[in-house]
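Quick log. Single chain, no ligands specified.
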Amino acid sequence: MMNCHLCNSDSANIQIQIHNHLLQADQTIQLCQSCADARGISPQNMKREQIESVIEEINALQGQQVKCDKCSTTLLEIRKNSQLGCADCYDKMGNSLETDLRRFHKRSSHECLPVIISEKQKRQRQITDLKKELQISISNENYEKAAILRDQIDNLSLL
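-> predicted structure:
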């Protein structure tokens, strides 16, 4: 026999299967008879609003119980604010947050976006690098190389 998701008694005899089309995932809710009766749920009488209310209640209960050891942020607070308290929150609650991350970000893992550098920024970097190289050439009294570097800097500055 399974435990009731609401009162944690070991007499859950009502099982509700839900398919979330957005997340492409199935969820099973286990309820005991007294919790189902208290919410007006029976195999013959299940309304969408009742099921959604039970899901919110289960999420709230889970959120109050799970807490980050470092910052004390609860799962419920993360779900409410859509923001982790600290880096350790994901380590502690990652499994519980997976469906939330998929709902908010369409994936459950972080992916860095590519950095786009403009042509002007590229030129500025080249000029900075060439100026450093120019200073080294002057320090080493390599004036021929310094003159070439100076001309390259001038040409890049004109663009």
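The chain has three domains: 1-65, 66-111, 119-158.
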